[in-house]
Specification:
The protein has one domain (2-220). It has eleven helices and two strands; from the N terminus they run H-H-H-H-H-H-H-H-H-E-E-H-H. The chain has helices at residues 2-33, 36-39, 41-55, 58-65, 72-90, 94-97, 100-124, 130-138, 140-165, 182-212, 214-221; strands at 170-171, 179-180. It starts with a helix and ends with a helix. It is a multi-pass membrane protein. Belongs to the very long-chain fatty acids dehydratase HACD family. The chain crosses the membrane at residues 7-30, 42-64, 181-201.
């Protein structure tokens, strides 16, 4: 319906503005301060990044309610990966926030999202530019695995701090005698992260084939 389409357009516009601001801010800061800007990336743009990622949870609801026809599982995995790494790993450990890997991770996320939300906004209006369509469904294939490697590296960097401070580790008193050592949870999550990456990459190739096929391009041109 027109109302739902307008709502999705406004949502994509908000996300586009947020990620464009982050992406532009990162580039300007790097051109101005050089390598010194990398260490305080989280402190300068972390708040806006967290807001954008929390808003992205709505995309799961969009799919569940049927107003977005995207596949649920791939999008769910991508969103939860970011939420876990951003809020559980980076946000909870101040020592990790100053690492260069955070800057790399934010750069990859925002580069992909600026393109994706631009494509989505135009698609809501029935506008399809072939170069933008190609970028949206092609650039994510090499960049997504790089972002997964950056997530995994951020988790590995955080492990010593989780071990030292005991963050999120829980030891239940008697009679339960049960404890959760959070570094072990993160190590197991690394396996889930790479298993999910294989599934999502397969889905990205399927989406690219569906949207960049010869028949689809001809239909969009017409």
């Amino acid at each position: 319906s027109f109302t739902m389409n307008l709502y999705l357009f406004v949502y994509d516009l908000m996300q586009f503005c947020g990620h464009s601001w982050i992406f532009t801010n990162m580039i300007i800061r790097f051109m101005t301060f050089g390598k010194d800007s990398l260490a305080d990336t989280f402190y300068s743009i972390g708040l806006v990044m967290r807001v954008c990622q929390l808003l992205s949870i709505l995309e799961i609801l969009h799919i569940l309610t049927g107003i977005d026809k995207s596949r649920l599982l791939p999008r769910f995995l991508q969103i939860t990966e970011r939420i876990i790494v951003l809020f559980v790993v980076i946000n909870s450990q101040e020592e990790v926030q100053g690492k260069y890997v955070v800057c790399v991770l934010f750069f990859l996320w925002n580069l992909l999202d600026v393109i994706r939300y631009t494509y989505n906004m135009l698609a809501r209006m029935g506008i399809y530019y072939l170069p933008l369509t190609w970028l949206n469904f092609s650039l994510c294939i090499p960049l997504y695995p790089l972002s997964v490697l950056a997530k995994a590296f951020a988790i590995c960097v955080s492990l010593p701090y989780f071990e030292s401070f005991g963050t999120y580790s829980i030891k239940l008193p008697f009679p339960f005698a049960f404890s959760i050592y959070f570094p072990y949870v993160l190590k197991m999550y690394l396996l889930v992260l790479f298993a999910g990456m294989c599934f999502i990459i397969q889905n990205l190739f399927s989406e690219r084939k569906a949207h960049l096929g010869t028949s689809n391009i001809k239909n969009k041109r017409s």
